[in-house]
Amino acid sequence: MAAPDVSRAGEARRRRLIAAAFLLPALVLLGALVVHPIGYSLYRSLFDRSGDTFVGGANYAEILRDGTIRTALGNTALWVVLAPTTATALGLIFAVLTERVRWGTAFKLLVFMPMAISMLAAGIIFRLVYDQDPDRGVANAVWVGVHDTFAESSAFPKARPGRDSPLVAAPGGAFETRDPVRAGSAVPLPLVGVAPDALPKGTRTARPPAAEPGKVTGTVWQDFTRGGGGRTNTVDPTEQALAGMRIEAVKDGRVVDRATAGSDGTFTLSAKADGARLRLPASNFREAYAGVEWLGPTLVTPAVIGAYVWMWAGFAMVLIGAGLASVPRELLEAARVDGANEWQVFRRITVPLLAPVLAVVLVTLVINVMKIFDLVFVIAPGAVQDDANVLALQLYRTSFGTDADQGLGSAIAVLLLVLVVPVMLYNIRRMRREARR
């Protein structure tokens, strides 16, 4: 009986040796590319900038003292909370809604397409999208368009009275006549400072004011003759009207009449304006709305998170869609037959059945955002990179920047590893639990 036992033991030993031979290359690569860098980073984090002096935990204490690194920690926490949950929620919504439309496949393709773009390319795209100039940045072009629909900006933000003008500055950015006006008089209201190409469409050559009995008339125009010449405070033949300028007649602090300049700059007020001062209200000179400073210190982190969600919502949608395809349809139909509406079916049946898939997506994205680097580096301008800073970017700046400190950089790398390990352990436990089912 001993011979079979010996042969079985030899066979088992031979199989172990064969398995070890096949695993050896992978173990060597794992040790060289994963274990050794982690061990060396831990070792290097205990030394100073030069690597010659042992400093113990001083680098880890510096992480807590350094304001820039604390900002990076706070921003990383914001990323972990917002980016994965937003991308997963959008992926869930897209997966559920596109299941019921004919063109759902085409929509999924469009949503997933950003995944084919590198982070660098996406960063360049969104750096342009968030440009402050509405003529270049799509986000501000849309925002300014919506704003101007409800609060149109003036065409004359730089207009002002010229030398010896009958107009003087009034409180609040308005201009008004020096003296009260009388019915039957014609009042010139000259302004300068408006660029010729900024004049409203349909503007014509200004017409000199003509007096009308019982009324106050006048002309608002650009008191400037191209090429020189012309007389101050007089409507010359080639000078342009300021069409659309609003004029108010103010008496005893109260507006008694209003008018708007026509395409030739002329306006007419009723006899109510007799004895009043004419005022050009500040709304005529409101600066054009420049939009939102998406890449300013306040909004830069949410803006970069938006770019990340644009890229990764498609990834979440595809995984959730695959999980949704395996949900038993009879359960959904049974719930509808029992009187559940679509929201109740979604909340009480679809989401609970998709919980394992949602967990996979969420954990994957959490690990992914922990090491986010390139989007922040490319999108955030240099002036606000400290405000948009995250741990992975701070690791790069500390280790390889102009004032490189690889001891502190290694400590940041170890901290990043420590933060990722609990998420990885949770993922491993979840996968083992799923395998036992």
From TrEMBL:
Q: Which UniProt keywords apply?
A: Cell membrane, Membrane, Transmembrane, Transmembrane helix, Transport
Q: Which residues form the ABC transmembrane type-1 domain?
A: 73-427
| SUPFAM superfamilies the UniProt entry points to | MetI-like
Q: Does the keyword Transmembrane helix apply?
A: yes
Q: What does the record say about its membrane topology?
A: Multi-pass membrane protein
List, alphabetically, the CDD domains matched.
TM_PBP2
Q: Locate the region Disordered.
A: 198-235
Q: Which InterPro entries match?
A: MetI-like, MetI-like_sf, UgpAE/MalFG_permease
Q: Where in the cell is it found?
A: Cell membrane
Q: Which Pfam families match?
A: BPD_transp_1 (PF00528)
Q: List where the protein spans the membrane.
A: 17-39, 77-97, 109-130, 307-328, 349-370, 408-428
Which domain of life does the protein's organism represent?
Bacteria
Q: Is this entry keyworded Cell membrane?
A: yes
Q: Which family does it belong to?
A: Belongs to the binding-protein-dependent transport system permease family.
Put simply, this protein is called ABC transporter permease
Q: Per the UniProt entry, what species is this protein from, by scientific name?
A: Streptomyces cirratus
